[in-house]
Write a structure and sequence with these properties.
Largest sheet: 8 strands, mixed, barrel
Number of domains: 3
Radius of gyration: 35 Å
Number of strands: 25
Distance between the termini: 132 Å
Shape: elongated
């Protein structure tokens, strides 16, 4: 009887134990499947978002907009869109569509699709296209979704090609769109399987299986599924302990302990898998650093910890100066290598006690915490600026880039991460406005300045569009006779409701906002129209480096001259050496094209910057303008005069005529004439004036001014050059 009771109890215990084991195993299997499902859903979203980020890089691109709307250069599109589909992890199909959805170019895996394009321009893809074209995609002219093509299942995206500023300048019927498709190939699925630890991951027809995740088209139709082989950790655990239960019920306690150990082990593994997936989602693929999401999470954690410990948190926001020029000159591949090189260098400088992230493009973020964090931040910022003083070697190419840094402090963790990022970003732009290659700490007044600057930018854009920019002209005289031979055109803006705005204020705003092209052409057009009334005068016009970078600049200038019907030989374009230093090869090509139009090129502000003799010989300028700082220094003594004479002698040895600007006294004019300058410009001969004042000046007898100069020369003959 006792045996029966014992046996019954044993059977009951065994039954309860087996039932409990089944439940635990089922729960562990279910938990693992759910974790795997969440991981796979995140992987699919990341796959789609990566295509979207790539599409933004290729469509919100000034060069792409220029070649799509201005140059209509299909060869450029093939090179930058079609050829990039070959062996690319970012996209394998690129299709350029016109405003009616007709393919202008279609490439897959580096080869033109030709007759096979219909297998890719599916109703689903055209649905994405219609959504972008109709504006249903919202503020961002881009849509994404999974579609089925003749090649298989892939993530597709359609976006409008436009400049970074967003101003296309074309009617909607001329818009050009770009579609990218990134297929879920077997190798891609295999990489996802390895990266997210999903064994047996495979692309299958639509399925409702528990171990699969559906992939839906933009209309919600399931077009495929990603299925994986369940790892069944619960079953594995049960197989290990079940023989022991069947062999002897006396080890139930041991079995329970073993079950707990195995369960905990599986849970730790699941948590590790989840942590790996989160880490992967917060890592920048190109640099291996944290991405923007990773930086945001790090800032939240550090600000929370700093608030609890009453410690400061500092964010350094870095932006590379000149990265766009490297990308434009050498291509995205070289730009990617530069990003990796910069990331490696910053990792060494930052060390292990700080967080480093690539926020996006050519921007980086550094998070510092602990004692004396502000002083450490300043020292680190100086070290980073010094690091960028050296050129970067990328294979056979050597590139030079700079860095502008913004610094913001969350004292005691009181400033949240998002606001900390915004303020550091604003401080970084203040560094750029201040001359680049420097660091700036956030000041609350920057918010007011940014708001005022934004309002001024809006008003300036409107003023250019309405033709409210005035042009004044400063006289340029012959150094021997002091007669008027030329004028320099200068922009002036009388802002409605505010009054005159200094060019030192609105010109930088035009350059940073992309309005400098429109402003420069506006000044040139007005000046050419006015020059038609002054047949005996010549004209000089300043050209900003921002205008020179525009691939369509020369064409715009040519069109302006055709409209004005002015001989280009009467015009001198004045350029500073900034762009010649940054992009010498592109500068040479642009200068050759401008000279082909008959224009002459002057090097402006010589003596204010690098003033390299090599640039004078390399580019063969038609004229050199001595900076006003050299002219003003003539009052300081003999050495300044010798420096001036050496500068003029250098230009004359190269056959370059010289204009001196900033002349304010007759003594300066005489010294400059003796030194060999052939033209003079400055307040001595007239401030910037209206066209009517220039008309009056042309009628005024210039002999008196020449006589006055001769008298000044006679008075200074014995000591003028030694004064």
């Amino acid at each position: 009887m006792l045996l029966v009771v014992f046996a019954t109890m044993a059977m009951m215990v065994a039954s309860i134990a087996m039932s409990a084991l089944d439940r635990v195993a089922s729960y562990a299997n279910h938990l693992d499947e759910e974790r795997s499902r969440q991981t796979l859903v995140g992987a699919i979203q990341t796959f789609e978002h990566q295509l979207g980020a790539t599409l933004i890089d290729y469509t919100a691109w000034d060069d792409a907009a220029t070649n799509a709307y201005v140059n209509k250069d299909m060869a450029w599109m093939i090179s930058n869109f079609g050829d990039m589909t070959f062996d690319s992890d970012l996209f394998d199909v690129a299709i350029v569509l016109d405003a009616e959805g007709r393919p202008m170019m279609a490439y897959s895996d580096g080869q033109p699709l030709d007759g096979a394009v219909k297998g890719y321009i599916t109703p689903a893809l055209m649905g994405l296209f219609d959504k972008v074209r109709s504006g249903q995609s919202g503020l961002m002219p881009q849509t994404l979704g999974f579609i089925r093509t003749q090649k298989g299942i892939g993530s597709a995206g359609v976006a409008l090609i436009r400049p970074k500023s967003g101003e296309i300048g074309q009617p909607p019927e001329n818009y050009v769109y770009l579609a990218f498709i990134r297929h879920l190939s077997s190798s891609t699925v295999e990489r996802l399987s390895e990266a997210y630890v999903l064994p047996g991951l495979a692309l299958v027809p639509p399925s409702t299986n528990a171990t699969s995740v559906a992939i839906s088209s933009p209309t919600g139709e399931a077009i495929a599924s990603l299925a994986w082989t369940p790892r069944a950790p619960g079953d594995q655990g049960r197989e290990q302990v079940e023989p022991l239960i069947k062999a002897a019920l006396v080890i139930v306690a041991i079995y329970a302990l073993l079950l707990i150990v195995i369960g905990n082990s599986e849970m730790r593994r699941v948590r590790a898998d989840e942590a790996n997936a989160v880490k992967l989602a917060q890592t920048d693929r190109l640099s291996g650093l944290l991405n923007r999401a990773g930086l945001n999470q790090l800032l939240e954690d550090e600000v929370r910890r700093g608030r609890d410990a009453r410690e400061d948190v500092v964010l350094l926001y870095l932006d590379l100066d000149g990265f766009k020029e490297v990308n434009d000159a050498y291509g995205h591949a070289t730009g990617d290598r530069l990003i990796r090189a910069v990331a490696a260098g910053l990792s060494v400088l930052v060390g292990e006690n700080a967080g480093l992230a690539r926020i996006g493009g050519d921007e980086f973020g550094i998070v510092l915490t602990g004692k004396d964090v502000q002083e450490r931040a300043f020292v680190l910022a100086d070290a980073i600026i010094a690091f960028f003083d050296e050129p970067v070697l990328l294979g056979e190419r050597t590139v030079v880039v700079g860095c502008s840094i913004g610094i913001c402090v969350s004292e005691g963790g009181q400033v949240e991460g998002g606001e900390l990022t915004r303020r550091a970003d604003m401080a970084m732009y203040s560094s750029k406005d201040g001359g680049r290659g420097r660091w700036t700490i956030y000041d609350p007044r920057m918010d007011e300045e940014r708001e005022s600057r934004n309002h001024m930018e809006v008003d300036l854009r409107q003023a250019i569009g309405l033709g409210e920019i005035d042009v004044v002209y400063q006289p340029v005289v012959d150094a021997k006779t002091f007669t008027l031979v030329s004028v320099e055109a200068l922009a002036r803006w009388n802002r409605k409701g505010h009054g005159p705005v200094s060019p030192d204020v609105f010109i930088p705003i035009a350059e940073s906002s992309g309005l400098i092209d429109q402003l420069g052409l506006c000044v040139l057009s007005q000046a050419l129209r006015q020059l038609s009334h002054w047949p005996e005068l010549k004209l000089s016009v300043n050209v900003s480096p921002g205008q020179f970078r525009d691939p369509g600049f020369v064409d715009h200038v040519a069109a302006t001259f055709d409209e004005a019907r002015i001989a280009p030989g009467r015009i001198v374009l004045e350029m500073t050496e900034t762009y010649f230093i940054q992009s010498p090869e592109r500068a040479r090509i642009a200068m050759e094209r401008l000279r082909g139009l008959g224009l002459r090129i002057a090097l402006d502000d010589f003596g204010a910057g690098f003033s390299s003799v090599g640039y004078l010989r390399q580019f063969g300028f038609d004229r050199m303008k001595i900076d006003r700082s050299l002219v003003q220094s003539l009052d300081r003594g003999h050495r300044s005069v010798e420096m001036l004479q050496a500068t003029v002698a250098l230009a004359r040895s190269l056959g370059i005529p010289v204009t001196a600007e900033g002349v304010e006294t007759e003594q300066q004019a005489v010294i400059l004439r003796i030194a060999g300058c052939d033209q003079l410009q400055g307040y001595l001969f007239g401030r910037p004036q209206s066209p009517e004042e220039i008309d009056a000046l042309m009628l005024r007898p210039m002999e008196l001014r020449a006589k006055a100069a001769e008298l000044a020369f006679a008075a200074s003959r014995d000591g003028g050059l030694q004064s």
